[in-house]
Amino acid sequence: MSKFIDKLKNVSKGYVRPMGFNAVASVPQPKMLLAAELGLEDLTDKEAFGGADVVIVSVGKASAKKLKETADMLGDTIWGVALGDKAADAEKMAKAGADFVVFSPDAEVSPLTALEKTGKIIMLENNLTDFMIRAADCLSVGAVIVDNQPDALALSWRKIMLYQRFADILSKPFLVRVSSNITLSELQSLWALGIDGVLISGSTGLKELRTLIDGAEWAVKRKRGHMSAIVPSLKMPASESVAPEEPEEPDEDD
């Protein structure tokens, strides 16, 4: 089972107060998870990913030796790989120690369904229709990442509305890609929608963002998922059904 998927699920469920007379232990209040996407060339030392809860590695055509070196450097840090639509290397990445794989909707199905212990995360564009978001929620994946165009990472009201759609429809944990200079109030706005984590590209601003998240108060998130359309029912309840009218008897004088 994927450690990162487990973390996301725990955050998504929210805080649960221990019950019983002997429940004195305090459960940490959930807070937003921080993921960083880095290329192999960026992983020069541990400082590159310090502060991230999880690292997503863009591996390209990495050799088995290079993957082994990457896994050794990351140590106890949870890490996965970004496959894009190239799912053929999924098994190789799993054998190298990847906790999960991230892929696009255009990735081939077979190599991914063969993974049993490795987590699967699908990356979706933020302009999908409601139907496609619902379809993604039914897939056998552990979580969703909502992606943005690299030149449009600033948080806008339009983007908040788009994320609101995902939060209302998805029941799976999900993250969104943001700029590393995102503010605390913006992070808390995303958290209030029900978003479980954020993903930044590169290591710039990673430590500052870690400090920001750790020092903040994280209120209880809104419940989300399984939004259904409101449509009028054409079927009348049995108790209120209208009995067929009986034909009127002819008047005796007629």
Automatic annotation (TrEMBL):
Region (Disordered): 235-254
Acidic residues: compositionally biased ranges: 243-254
Domain of life: Bacteria
Designated name of the protein: Uncharacterized protein
Lineage, top ranks: Bacteria, Bacillati, Chloroflexota, Dehalococcoidia, Dehalococcoidales
